[in-house]
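Homework help board

Subject: predicted structure for assignment chain

Our instructor gave us this sequence and asked us to write out the predicted structure in token form, then describe one feature. I got the tokens but I'm not sure how to describe them. Can anyone check?
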Amino acid sequence: MKFIFAFLILSMVSPSEMITKMTDSLYIPDHNIAIHGVDAENNPVSLEFDKAKKILTKTEKGEKTEIKMAEMPLFLKLFFFSADKSAPESLAVSAKSVSGALHAAGINTEVSTISASEADGSAVFAIGKDKRFTEANVLELSKESMRPAVLRIGDETYIFSDYHRSRLPLAFPGNIKFFKNGALQGEWIFLRDEYKQK
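My token output:
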């Protein structure tokens, strides 16, 4: 029954509307967004985004890098955008920009299907697939929250999880894992103190 209901919802929502819902669910009102955490070896990781300047400052292993929005890696473009809810049209502009970045990376933003997540088997909307078992570059969005669960392009896969435990609850993943050819390459952990392993 749930599958039939989800299928009916999917048939009424286009991939571009899904991306718009995603940006709305990830919206953070602050003009400067700062996320602090650690990598898998417990080295500090910091991401700071200035919406006005459209510049992300990444600090990892003591090395600080400024990244302009146009040059930002796709997996970060999903979360850092300059929309402002006081100007609702800016959310549509940000969603269109994210959609364009997905398309440029090889994800077919014209098709989607209901699927099971590659990461944990949960129900997702898979943008980039027209059928569940099709091999394709894909952005999986949680069916319940419309937040990114998996981004797969070629041999690279990003898994986003633990939103409910993150430093910015429900707006930024508490955990991001990066795989290449199925092998774990790196991990960022942005959990609130009460969820950190002792």
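Reply (TA_rk): Your tokens look well-formed. For the description, you could write something like this. The chain has a mean pLDDT of 90. That's the kind of observation they're looking for.
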